[in-house]
């Protein structure tokens, strides 16, 4: 019996609640089938401009990890053609930009895209508003780019005989939730993270290789929901103890 189930969304059987667990990344497929938005994937904001070559390698790494996951899940023939990883670059506006600024910029973009991709104003259904590509974006600053450099260094040394009993460091990005309140959410009183003392500052660090699975679950869960799916920064979710450097808080200068 062939495993072929159609290599377009129209040919593929309709994903329903009773058969969704039979399909890897089934929520991604269902979301596109039900809404007519035939794209999936995150928008990436480039917020560091220190190393062009490293940036290009970072983006290539992200794309390769998405494809690798599709191959592992046997979904490359169906889902690769619909994968849309949009990269936003603007040195004047985005170099060193804060996460709240990116949240604001992306929220406006997502609202425009939600309308123009599906027939104009008023056509975006409630289900369409829940699609992750319209609610979450990726943020890459120098600290995130440095995780690629650390991974590449580990890989070179491993090929030369080093680190034989060690796991490589993860390549990391930040994922931003546009629906979070500006001051954060959850219980207050935590160590400040970029000025936020609430449990959830509106974003988290995540491992790039897990992004397809995160995208899939965000169809039905919030970023901080689910079992072991959120760790408060500077910890990295699902990274076995890897942490990121905290960004120092800036104190505005008062003109006298």
Let me know the largest β-sheet.
6 strands, mixed
Determine the number of helices (DSSP H or I, runs of at least 4 residues): 8
| Secondary-structure class | alpha/beta
Helix content: 25-40%
Low-pLDDT runs: 249-256
Number of strands: 6
N-end to C-end Cα span:
79 Å
Name the overall outline.
globular
Into which percentage range does the β-strand content fall? 5-15%
Order of helices and strands: HEHHEHHHEHEEHE
The tally of domains stands at 1
**Could you tell me the mean pLDDT?**
88
Radius of gyration: 19 Å
Strand order of the largest sheet: 2-1-3-4-5-6
How would you explain this protein's 3D organization?
With 256 residues, this protein is of the alpha/beta class. It has one domain. 34% of the residues lie in helices and 10% in strands. It is built from 8 helices and 6 strands. A 6-stranded mixed beta sheet has the order 2-1-3-4-5-6. α8 links the parallel β5 and β6.
């Amino acid at each position: 019996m062939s495993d072929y189930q159609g290599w377009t969304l129209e040919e593929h059987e309709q994903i329903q609640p009773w058969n969704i667990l039979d399909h890897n990344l089934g929520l991604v497929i269902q979301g596109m089938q039900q809404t007519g938005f035939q794209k999936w994937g995150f928008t990436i904001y480039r917020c560091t401009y220190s190393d062009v070559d490293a940036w290009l390698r970072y983006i290539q790494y992200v794309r390769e990890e998405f494809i690798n996951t599709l191959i592992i899940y046997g979904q490359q023939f169906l889902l690769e053609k619909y994968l849309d990883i949009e990269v936003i670059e603007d040195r004047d506006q985005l170099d060193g930009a804060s996460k709240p600024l990116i949240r604001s910029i992306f929220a406006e973009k997502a609202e425009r895209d939600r309308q123009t991709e599906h027939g104009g104003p008023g056509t975006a259904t409630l289900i369409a508003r829940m699609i992750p590509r319209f609610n979450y974006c990726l943020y890459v600053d120098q600290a995130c780019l440095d995780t690629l450099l650390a991974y590449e260094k580990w890989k070179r040394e491993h090929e030369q005989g080093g680190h034989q009993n060690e796991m490589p460091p993860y390549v990391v990005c930040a994922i931003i939730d546009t629906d979070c309140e500006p001051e954060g959410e959850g219980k207050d009183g935590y160590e400040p993270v970029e000025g936020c003392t609430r449990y959830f500052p509106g974003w988290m660090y995540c491992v790039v290789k897990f992004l397809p699975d995160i995208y899939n679950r965000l169809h039905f869960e919030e970023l901080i929901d689910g079992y072991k799916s959120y760790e408060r920064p500077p910890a990295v979710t699902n990274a076995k103890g890897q942490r990121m450097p905290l960004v120092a808080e800036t104190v505005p200068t008062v003109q006298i």
